[in-house]
Fold each of these.
Amino acid sequence: MFESSGAHSAVLTPPSRDAGPGEMLELRHVRKSYGSFVAVKGLDLSVHRGEIFGFLGPNGAGKTTTIRMVAGVLRPSSGRILVGGDDLGREPERAKSRVGYIPDRPYLYDKLSGGEFLRFVAGLWGREGDEVERRVDRLLELFQLAPWKDELIESYSHGMRQKVLISSALIHQPELIVVDEPMVGLDPRSARLLKDLFRTFVANGGTVFLSTHTLEVAEALCDRIAIISQGEVIAFGTMDELREQAHAGGAHLEEIFLKVTGGEAMNDIIEGLREAIAR
Amino acid sequence: MNGAVVRSRAGLLWLLRPKIRTKLNRAKTDEGKVFKGFLLGFVGIFFWSLIFAVIFRMLQYFRGTQGIGDLLASKLLGLAFVTFLMILVLSNVITALSTFFLSEDLEFVVAAPVDSDTVYAARLTETIVDSSWMVALLAVPLLIAYGVVYAAGPVYYLLAVGTVIPFLVIPAVIGSAGTLLLVNIFPARRTRDLLALVGLFAAAGVVALFRFLRPERLMSPEEFSSLVDFIAVLRTPTSTWLPSEWAATALMSYLSGRFDWFHFAFLWSTAAVCLIAGAWLHGRYFDGGFTRAQEGAEKKEGRTRSKLVDRVLARAEPSTRVMVAKEIRVFFRDTTQWSQLILLGVLVAVYVYNITVLPLYTGEQISFLLINAVSFLNLGLAGFVVAAIAARFVFPAMSIEGRMMWLMQSSPVDIRTIFWSKYWVGTVPLLLVAVPLIVGTNLVLDASPFVLALTTLTMIGITFALTALALGFGALYPNYDTENVAEIPTSFGGLLFMMAAVSYLAGVVMLEAWPVYYFLDSRIQAGQAEVGLVPLLMGVTGAAILTGFAIWLPLRAGIRHVQSVDF
């Protein structure tokens, strides 16, 4: 599964604390509004421990808002989010300590080196010492950033920043990785590495909650998938269950996605585009 | 073509349109626009009136000086214009780097089929507006004062506008050309660091030079050895080759009744030649420079970890430790941040210098009352210096986390920990500046031990309060989008902070004025200065309560605001 599973697999192992059975993530009637606009309308979801959960939807469906609420960056307008049983609203520190978050845009401190940034993130999660140093080295090695460890991040390319970001989500041994568009900016080799990394993390007992537009990635990786549109879940389950819900036997995720999110209208749009270009 | 209008190419106005619309839309959606407008208008009119009053008074005094009155007025105008010119060239060089090379919308503009001259005109207009608005506003009361004193008609005001326009264009073209040259030599991001440094050194130099030359001596001709020397100094033009001289000469000649067309025409023709040369340079070198500006990546090593910071914070929580260490590292590695220390150094040096040249010892015997009163009031002035430093270094503290708030919010660290880390990172260095400043200047002034002790202790409290005010206001009025930390304190929130800081300082000085008054009054009445226990207790307790509120309220408001904002 993972290229060098020995030493590297160790950095992808979540801690054993409270790792009992049950849900890793639960969203109960989670609603988020911006003024009069409701971005997420009473979402109910549960993500099991040890699974990769895909969260898909068209642009503006409420995916990133949901992801950011789960990561603790945004507060829901109402509803509860439980991470490993801890309420993100009532016990934010306990809940957040279980999560590693990879946002869609790689904003980092330009004036820190890659190694310093990872140590800084570990410190925010209360980790330090030799173990952190070892994890920093292993993660940077894993992403082939070891030669750049002491260079300032301002000199990194977009892809390198993305890799530092992914490493920072793993540095403090999270139980749950929350990731928004993980493949953006990664070369094919790194994208493959990331897929293997998620699989290993989950095989070691971790959980991944990911949002992506790359449907092939979602189909290949995710154990279960929720499709959201206009702030509501419109399809939910394993690939087989989704096919059943969409009455699309044997179809790939792309067809299911288009069907449940109003894909029929796509044909009209494409036809309209053809005509416009022909004129 | 089905009703679509195809334009041959986008014109100047079309290119400027997104900027104008952005500003209009921002103004329209700004919730506090009435309050902001009112406050900014009030502050603006206050400063305009102040500048007008000072210039008006000086010009009236000059006019009363027979023979050299016009010379003095002309000299003053020349000095003002040459100062404007220096500021304009510097700020244009720095602004042009953003507008021509670093601005995010350049990708679209460069990729669009727009000719080079139009791009140049659009970017130059933007540069002129961004870099010159403050100078243009400063020039208004100055030029009106001249018009009023010389009883000039409406033509003078039209002429003033006609003079200021080419005067703003010339430094903008020169500044942009300088930036174009630098970007073609250095990578753009390195150029920005370089410019931040050069700009600050130059600004600091201008301030220091201006202060140490003591221009107020122009008002006291008796300090020159003879009148002939004085007039000789006045007659010497600042420089015949500078546009500032042409602008001043053109305006003064009109006011004196014999308009000098030559200098006015020279100003306009130079601006025109500059524009043509600038457009040519842009067409020739912009593409190369823009390409270089995209190659920002440069290997730069971080330094080794500071053992001192690790030792001082050995007992703190890991999260506090890494926050403080990060603050210090980022500060000293970011040229736009640490280079402001240069301005701080100059500010402190000028302040101490001003204290040392105070004419307190003019009488035969040293005035005990005057010295101690000034030493006590020094508290307010030194407090103002500390407030200015806090505005530079502490006010932007939350704004610079803007794009990193995703990490702060998703980490299990309470936002209060982040605030307190920033609070201490701001307070400790400020104390290291504030305490020596007040002790040093009051020792120079030879203040009595009572005033020295009172001002020193109060200054410690003031520093804690000013840091809290700066951090709190910075969190309430953040600017999360800017790349240049130096522009954060010049925002509306920065203005509010300075106003709050001045009000707080005035409150503390007023509360403690009672014990000091009692102390000085007892010297007059009984010949022996005595400390009154009741006034002292009342005054100090009042100041302490005020300081407590000034620490607690802004920090609480700032924390609550950050907690409530969706990033």
Amino acid sequence: MGTNSHPSNLFHCEPNRSKLLSQLWQHQINNRCISEDAIAALATEHNLSAIEVAGVASFYHFFHRQPAGRHTIYINNSIIAELKGYERIREAFERETGARIGSVDPTGTFGLFETPCIGLSDQEPAALIDFFPFTNLNAIKVKEIIRKIKEGRPVHEIADSPPANIRSLPPNDRTLFFAPYTRGEVIRKLANLTPEEVIEQLRIGELAGRGGAFFPTWKKWNTCRTFPESPKFIVCNADEGEPGTFKDRVLLQYQSGSVIEGMVTAGYAVGAAYGIIYLRGEYRWMVPALEAEIAQFYQVGLLGKNIAGITKFDFELRLEVGAGAYVCGEETALLESLEGKRGEPRTKWFYPVEKGYLQLPTVVNNVETFAAAARLLQIGSFEYLKRGIPGSAGTKLISVSGDCQRPGLYEIEWGITVAELLELCGAEDPYFIQVSGPSGECISIKEKFRRISMLDLLAQKDIRCGGSFMIFNRQRDLVHILLNFASFFKHESCGVCTPCRAGNFILQRKLEKISHGLADRNDLEELRSWGTIMKATSRCGLGKTAPNALLQAVDKFGDYFATRLGTTTNGLYRAIDEHAAVADYERYKP
Amino acid sequence: MATCTFWVDGKPYQAEGGTNLIDAAQAHGIFIPSLCYFPHIDPPLGTCRTCTCKINGRYNPACTETVKEGLKVEVNTPELLDMRKALVEMMFAEGNHFCPACEKSGNCDLQHMGYELGISESRFPHLFQDRLIDYRPRRMVLEHNRCIKCKRCVEEVLTGDGKRVFNYVNRGNETQVGIDYEQEARLSDGDAEKAMAICPTGAIIVRGKSFTKPFGDRAFDLKSTQKHYTHQILDKPRVANFEKKTIATVSLAGCFGCHMSMLDIDTEILDMAELVSFNKSPLTDIKNFTQRCHLGLVEGGCANTENIETLRKFREMCDLLVVVGECAVWGGLPAMRNTVPLGECLEEAYLNSITSEPGETTVPYHADLPKILDRVYACNEIVKVDYTIPGCPPSATHIWKVIKSLLWGEDYSLLYSEFKYD
């Protein structure tokens, strides 16, 4: 099952514990589960108690404690998949495999599970089978796939190869990410630049982090550079978990060279000798190609010792594969995960640039940021500044999905309006747009003249977009969409802090109440108040942003919510569904 | 480190730089609630979030902040007071906290925080998740219903060779603290008791080591941590005449314990008889309302359709509706069944119990019988409630202070020792 290539070995400076995740993967791949014996063996090897290893394994939903079938199927249950026919696909898989969702069929052949967004929102409905992608599914295709697997065809032979679906690039060769480039072009430039000059280039180009926080990249690199501890690490955050986002997947599939060059550049600028790409488990199928690319870099002397002939510039790079946990996209959670632990975000006691991976100075940047940094150096900061608008230079990759004719990847120049983007992708009667994923911002079509840029810190005039752009038309049930988001956060919360762990569950209950027509105005007020409390008190970005869509929707779509409220009584009685409340008991009617 | 001046709610205070903000505040008599904080854990856990303040303009927990020159902290703004209260309420709503049936009651940090913050009910719907009670450890019982995931035991309880005995398992709302049976068996008795002591709730119980102190002697029975404990029932006392008032009372899914408590004011009951008359109530045995009442006191939650009907009648016939006791407030002990599907409960009780005879069993069902609801509902899920008195049962003084305040606008404040959940 699955790809057999394992991420490369640890660097000599890394402790054995950092191996834990890939060891768990080995057990999962070879035995379809992490058995009690495996836990015990790993505990002995790492000198840990068994519960600590079990704690790590049970954090990641691709690790199963019970056998997950000789072939393990994960159907995407993101909201985009739901619009595109998740239900029909699930039924088809259940029918063909004989397994109910969340379980394994009686023969142990197929395990059928759900997983949130697998980074293929432009090709939904989609699923991973043995961690290979299958896209644009329909009932007939599902039947064919299962038939072939039953016949013994290797899964990787029948898997799909997701196309890039690049729908639009900036005109007049102004594309940044997809411009021609030859391997080593950027790294070789470093020979003529000091680390300070590299950072200065980024500063002039005003490059900001593309993971969604838009922190100035030069500042991050520069701060990390000032810490004397050694070694330092460059970590590429390829845990692209925000539902609706797939831009990093396309970059890693088709432009992995520029990403690696960006990492090497960062290593040069901050004086780091090691780089790790943390690839989300959903993208495990990309491992062979990425490993091959890294091997190529080593072969031509662009990784390793004295890179590109620069004396004493050594940089090693390896891949680490996550195992299904959205919260690992949070940088400190990602670092914990790299260390072979549960992906629980750290408190902000230290920033990673000071104490990151293994408590050593670490730069964590998004895939797109590294690619952009490499491209910026390739063309020079002044050329870079010609793209976009003043104060928000450059271009941005946006993953468009949902109700439009041309879902796919859009490279836009900052400053484009929502209306222009909707026009480009052929949006159909758009009504509700979720920008930057469920944790981002929801906007109404009335706001279509807002620009997409990095200008507005508080995002009141312009909109910042981390990469996901999900379009919903007027026929879509807004409460249903929000319920999907709430359920996502409820499962993906790391579980450490109360407001996020319990809060998301509580919001989901409230939305269910609205969905059942039992809510009144007071319930909307409570949603607003509770969401605000969660935002203020949660431990990390997940809980702080989880109520965003809901809070904004309640404000922006008041008319819609009014139609979803139950008929109010005299204000003294609360609405309950008495029929449902006694339904269980009625089964005992003689 | 040098002494620094930091500001709390606009007033300057001094502390050594680098002191944890919670400790620094406490040294000056400023109460910041917390449930996971331990001075010696570094970096701090920051899991419970109940010490959230506004620090230099941003919401952050006090436990992850140290004193620096010029640090500006807001602690007791109405918004922050409410936010912190909400966090503790959320813990009560998330777990299954049956204080009257808990070994740790009286010595429980969570319960104590509920008292300090004056929480009489959770604003959040109780989640009633079905959770395990783990009896397998050699010395301990792990009560997952009560765990608030503060992480104290994970960090603090280690074997002699540094292995963890507890660790988080699972993720999201299913996160819980797992225990390693093998390592637990290696702990000394002292370490096991330490684990129980540092647990801020009754989630870790050491067999044979609970219920060691009687009521009144337990850690949080009598004395508040706050210098000035204030607990007021109404923002402003109502202005009303000292006329005779009519009260109705009822026990729904309750045990009549709250009614007993009501009668527990000794001779004062004679004075009360002058001031109030009872209409529909088990005390008078008047079965149906004969007039509109000033006040309705409801004990117990709603377990069946008749309870709902009665409660709605109370709402209709009473100007003010007060729910009395844990059961009425959020379901209480009868709500222990809420984590189990109704069918399982009924079948266990009527079909599969040890005393049921094969072939002779049936689940009672008749047109004249009330229908049993899928779960026990809190009164405020069925009707609008005006005031809530927690306790199991609430003390007589608590109940009557509330009644007097509501009916005649008497000035009212409650002592820390009068406000209890058990």
